Amino acid sequence: MSLSDDQRAHLEHRLLDERARVVTALGRLGERFAETEQDAAGDLSKMPLHPADEGTDEFDRELDAAEETRLSRELAAIDAALERLYQHPEQFGRDERTHEEIPFERLDVIPWARQRVDEPRP
After folding, report:
1. Which of 22, 31, 53, 115 is deepest in the core (most CB within 10 A)?
2. Are 74 and 24 spatial neighbours (Cβ–Cβ below 8 Å)?
3. Is 115 a domain residue?
4. For residue range 95-106, what is the model confidence (pLDDT) as tens digits?
């Protein structure tokens, strides 16, 4: 049984909501990258107090960069799902390899899913 029109509309809404969430998160990260190290750390001086402070600041920058990469990939996947939904609505929600239907419950959680996940085997 393929997705109903109501299910497709629900998934479109979910994709648009998720897209807005990711764009907002990327905007916040962009603002953090725009801050100077001194402002971000709340330091009064440009001179770090301790080498560990520098390490912590670098770790935070790397963590933010990794999060930005993850969010950018998620945004690309969401945009690709919206494109599939708009261009080929009858094929949306099917596994790209096997062409089997992806359960609506999975799509409701991850509406940009491209593959069906089988039940874990004992």
Report:
1. 22
2. no
3. no
4. 999 999 999 999
Q: How many CB atoms lie within 10 A of CB 107?
A: 22
42: left (phi over 0), alpha (psi -120 to 50) or beta: left
Predicted local confidence at residue 60, as pLDDT: 82
- Report the interhelical angle of 51-87 vs 5-34 (nearest 10°): 150
Read off the pLDDT of residues 12-46 as tens digits, 9 standing for 90 and up.
999 999 999 999 999 998 887 666 555 555 655 56
- What CATH number is attached to the domain comprising 25? 1.20.120
The Cα 7–Cα 64 span in angstroms is: 35
Over residues 67-79, the mean pLDDT reads 97
The tokens for 25 are 């998160």
Angle, alpha carbons 116-120-121 (nearest 5°): 130
Please check whether residue 21 lies inside any domain of the structure.
yes
